[in-house]
Amino acid sequence: MNRPIKKLNKKVEDKSKDYRIIFSILTGQNSHILTIVIVGHLLIEYLLDKIITTKFKNTKKVVGKSFAEKIKLLYPTWLPLFLFKNIKLLNEIRNGVAHNLGVVDYKPVIYMPNGELRTLKIPLKKNKGKFYFNELINTILFDLVNYSYYSLGVSADIDLHQMFNLDYK
């Protein structure tokens, strides 16, 4: 299985920038932890659905499944282990945050492509939760978009109409 490249070759365009910009716009600078986690989780689920609809034939039943079921379906066939672990970690955090209205105990870690578990050093003046969740989500968006584009051939285009279920009939 091809692994996503953490540092992209200078000749290769970072296809995740639009997703990371949308995440930044939707969460803003003063967002509550709950908003950051939920919006990031939704963007990642949108990308998982995109991979599923590109790679599988009968997708109607699959796209309606839970987030956890989707990542189990994609691992190990389409998702590398480090990315699966980061997405699973985010899902656990999302469930904890959603059920405790933003109060959740966590260790600020991110799984790296080489299998290493990296503990983030959070700047003293930063909100620990916001900093960590932003870093985790942006890492997943970077890896998921670039991996799905370069390794799986999934389009990196964003369909805002589909993403936000906009229906102007």
Account of the protein in words:
54% of the residues lie in helices and 4% in strands. By secondary structure, the chain is mainly α. It has a single domain (17-153), classed as Four Helix Bundle (Hemerythrin (Met), subunit A) (Up-down Bundle), CATH 1.20.120. A two-stranded antiparallel ribbon has the order 1-2. The longest helix is centred in the N-terminal third of the chain and has 23 residues, at 33-55. The radius of gyration is 16 Å and the shape is globular.
Secondary structure tally, helices: 7
Q: Strand order within the widest sheet? A: 1-2
> Percent helix among the residues?
40-55%
Gap from first CA to last CA:
43 Å
Q: Tell me, what is the CATH class? A: Mainly Alpha
Structural class, from helix and strand content?
mainly alpha
Gyration radius from CA atoms, angstroms: 16 Å
Number of DSSP strands? Answer: 2
Mean pLDDT across the residues is: 81
Total of domains: 1
Oligomeric grouping of the chains: single chain
Map the helices and strands:
Layout: H1 17-27, H2 33-55, H3 60-63, H4 67-74, H5 81-99, E1 109-111, E2 117-119, H6 128-150, H7 160-163
Antiparallel strand pairs: 1-2
Helix pairs in contact: 1-2, 1-6, 2-4, 2-5, 2-6, 4-5, 5-6
